[in-house]
Amino acid sequence: MDKNFSIIGKSLPRSDAFDKVTGVLHQFVSDIKLPGMLHMKILRSPVTHARIKSIDVSRAENLPGVFATVTYKDMIEYDYPKGPPHLGILKLDERVRFIGDEVVAVAAETEEIAEEALDLLKVEYEPLPVIHNREEALAKKAFEIHSGSGNVQGGNPYEEKEGDIAAGFDASDVTVEVNTKLPNASKSVAEPRGYIVAWNLANNSLEVWDTEKSLYRTRNELADFLRIPRHNIRAHCIFSGGDYGSKGQAKYKALTALASKKSGRPVKYLGSRFESCQDEGPKYKTEWWGKMGFKKDGTITAKEIVAFSNIGAYGNATPPEMAPVVIQSYVGPFRFNHTGYYTNKPNTAGMRGWGTIDAVICVEILLDLAAEKLGIDPIEIRLKNYVKPPQKTHLDHYMIGVDGATVLTRHLKQAKESIGWSEKWKGFGKPYSLNGTKRKGIGFSARIHNVDAWMSACNMMWNIDGKLIVYAGVANQGQGSDTVSKMIAAEVAGARYEDTFVALGDTAMNPTTASASGQGLTESNGTAVKLAAEDLKRNTIKTASSYLKLNPVNLDIKNSFVYVKGTEPEQGTPISIITAKLGEIYGYGVFVPPFGQTTHGYAFVDVEVDTETGKVEILNIVAADNCGHAINPRNAMQGAEGARMFNLTMALLEDSVFDPNDLRRLNFAQINSDGELLSVDSPPQTSILVEEPTPFSYVWGAVGITEGAGTATCVALANAFYNATGVRIYEFPLTPARVLQVLHKV
């Protein structure tokens, strides 16, 4: 690892932290007020599944202060040209498919007037059959929630396979099987979704203020849907109070845009907490069946997984294509089959850990079952079966670039010592402590997660005062990407860190930038920033050499000074003098990644289970994640720790409860009655950053970790529960009621 950095590798404070906590920044949706701005509210369906027979908006439109209503009839002339129409991303239509589905939007001078107008709307519904579950959804001649879909996302199950699994199972000495279930966990973000759209009727252009992951996706989706040239839409990034997959639905932006068009005024939509619970898109509920074959020495001979996901009424983000990446991280032929099916539950969406958490839980529990059956150490069975990189996965745009065994063995001794593995590991199904009704156990799991690959570009300049301005356009959702961009830019361009500033995203000012999703920003945006800084440095040295009458070969830049190599930077010429004389100097970088890649990690979890009350208490977590090269170690560790807490809340507490008849959501606190993990409830965590550079990263081998870091803890928790109690548990969350049930105490 290169140690000659002055900025990279330091745990610098977040560049936006002080302004946020002191309230200096007022860039959240609720803080923005535009001249003449209206407020939009949405009438939602009170019925589960119906055809809209009629909508009467006359009384609402005649209410003083109301300027526009938007119904599905206003959307008929528009269509989204990409993807299946039943994804429900942008359009309202003449049907409602769950309680809470959007029916009419009203824009008025105040929120109170808009709310009053909702009561004046008259809608007549024709009930349609309700699809409650998988059996009803996939039955022959089932009523289709989306015409032509067969109630299956994409129209057919998704399948990937490699090799001859029948021969693999025939050659096995031992087989293991498991059925796992994951809940409809909620994102529970601090800030509900919100948008502002101003449609300029004079030149048919839009200005959008958004908290979504990608300003450029917002711009492109709205442009394509509304048939407006993309350059006629300007999207601004504003600070977000969290996302985790809850703010990607462009339908609300389309509604807000049409309300602005009809009214001729800017329109703000700010959803309520209740609406977030109704329609934020919780994680899809999944059921997985898995089977693996093994030789006596622990070598995998075959893998087969069949999965079902209840994606609700729309379900625009089920990730079956990612699951085989997890399966392919271990040797042996495989078959993976996934069916995402529609029901009349509220729509679902991706959530932190998207794409792999379900597969990690199924695959890793199978490995523990096999290790126990074969009498092999749970860590050794994983080390034995990792594929050797580089290996292309079934998705050509994802590569396994780092050896999982290498990641697992790096710092393994430290991790074991920190958790007390040698003292606490007593074997499968054996607690290390018994104290009345309380039993303690320790568990382990590995994990793999995909790193998305996005095209990204960056502009950079020394301004007239010699300050380095970075135009990267990344959505600021609290992940610290601005700080990482600032560090990379300052390091490579030769600026002082305090002289470097990252501009907020703005599609009119910044080039197209990567989406803040799939933990791909570090590589995609980071590489674009690095390339722009390299270009800027070359241009600066060229400009300075002409101004200073010096050979460019002899010049370098550091601490915002151009200086002669072999001398101290401060003996050179400040950039500010050069730009004051010659004007701004620019650099540009664009990165088109050839493919995405994967990251590995692992976790140990120490738990105590009270067999009388069913309470599961996490005593300690020790986890290691490969970040390739830590740009900002503290920021990376904080992100990883947040990911673990996020997934542990799902594993221990969270599920969505629905009425069995009309499927309305019942628990609007977004948690169940057992409570919620707060920061004060956070168990001790030891975060270990493994710096094993990936060969496919262009930012010194660095990759993101803050989605995948949480996926191993769920399995390690389940394995620790078994070792504490001697009873396997395969369904989450591990609420006291479920624990007592599996322990046969109720």
TrEMBL record:
Pfam families: Ald_Xan_dh_C, MoCoBD_1, MoCoBD_2
Any GO molecular function: iron ion binding
Cross-referenced SMART domains: Ald_Xan_dh_C
Aldehyde oxidase/xanthine dehydrogenase a/b hammerhead domain segment(s): 22-129
Keyword line: Molybdenum, Oxidoreductase
Keyword flag Oxidoreductase: yes
Catalytic activity, EC: 1.17.1.4
Protein name as catalogued: Putative dehydrogenase
